[in-house]
Design a protein that fits this description.
- This protein is of the alpha+beta class and 312 residues long.
- The chain is built from 9 helices and 9 strands.
- The strands form 3 sheets. A 5-stranded antiparallel beta sheet has the order 2-1-9-8-7, with helices on both faces. The chain has a two-stranded antiparallel ribbon with strand order 3-6. It has a two-stranded antiparallel sheet with strand order 4-5.
- Helix 4 packs across helix 5.
- The radius of gyration is 23 Å and the shape is globular.
């Protein structure tokens, strides 16, 4: 399948493959000639993002899906942006958003959720400590995003009606594509022909924009969600590794046991107070026994930032 071409927009006229020239000069007037205006700085050389990502895919022996939105300018850039990829644990960011949207402020901090030892899933570093006393909904959201706790993820899903409930929530975000069909940890079992538990980079980037800088949540809940994303402990080698250390980044990773699934979605502030960039990067190997490669995600993030003109 041919990769999606890069798309850039909006509101900026581009002159490609040509120059503008003036007409014949008029006769010189017998008045002093004004000093010429200072020349505008030369534009940064345009990078061939699709070509660079195709080369990266070839060396990676896999597939890369990416989409970025510069909320300052409205410009977007994508590659395989409308192809399906496994959600994996990136879905936990949306599940937390759904819980925030459907829970009162008081319930979020006082409603205690309990589970049994039999409901614990592999990789549950926080919920495994609280089988006896449970955790509040806010604590479960935090555990699901910051530590990618799988049992916490399932408890959030229970709160919103399970996988079908989350799919319905995707639709409220005007996302007709993303779908969740299974619980943790079965949702991570993915193959290239699988449509269950999938999204596209473009759809997920728009969802994350709605949740973090849009109006899908109220201001207080947006702040909570962004705080959890910034506190994430699992993403240092992915999008964060591909961007300057001075940039402020909140992200949620996803990793699968088959086809080397390695994903990351992020809200990126190039400077304090700057309008953020939204990124969604999804990768997988072509071989079922392939391993995840964090550096491919990091290098893709660099290319997206360069394509948006945010890096030289």
């Amino acid at each position: 399948m041919r990769p999606t071409r890069v798309v850039t927009m909006t509101g900026v006229a581009l002159l490609i493959g040509g120059t503008l020239s003036a007409g014949p000069a008029a006769a010189a007037a017998p008045t002093p000639v004004a000093a010429p205006a200072a020349a505008a700085p030369a534009a940064a050389p345009r990078i061939d993002v699709p070509g660079a990502l195709r080369a990266l895919e070839k060396s990676f022996k896999g597939r890369i899906g990416a989409y970025a939105i510069d909320t300052a300018t409205g410009k977007t850039i994508g590659y395989r942006a409308n192809e399906r990829f496994a959600l994996a644990s990136t879905v936990k960011a949306v599940a937390a958003g759904a819980v925030l949207a459907r829970t009162t402020d008081r319930e979020l901090t006082t409603k205690v959720v309990h589970w049994t030892a039999g409901e614990l899933k592999p990789y549950s570093p926080e919920t495994s400590k609280h089988v006896e006393d449970g955790m509040t909904l806010a604590e479960l959201c935090r555990a699901a995003i910051i530590y990618s706790d799988n049992t916490a993820g399932n408890m959030l899903l229970k709160r919103i009606g399970g996988p079908r409930g989350l799919t319905r929530y995707f639709r409220t975000l005007k996302d007709p594509v993303s779908r969740l069909d299974r619980w943790e940890t079965e949702l991570n079992e993915w193959s290239p022909k699988e449509k269950r538990d999938t999204t596209t980079p473009a759809a997920m980037a728009r969802d994350l924009r709605a949740l973090t800088v849009g109006r899908a949540l109220n201001a207080k809940d947006r702040s909570r969600l962004v705080g959890w994303l910034r506190g994430n402990t699992t993403g240092d080698a992915r999008i964060r590794a591909g961007l300057p250390k001075t940039w402020i980044i909140g992200d949620k990773t996803g990793t699968g046991p088959t086809y080397g699934t390695a994903n990351d979605i992020a809200v990126v502030w190039p400077a304090k107070g700057a309008a953020p960039i939204i990124m969604a990067i999804y990768t997988n190997r072509l071989a079922a026994d392939g391993s995840a490669d964090d550096t491919v995600v990091a290098r893709t993030a660099t290319l997206l930032a360069r394509g948006l003109g945010r890096l030289p």
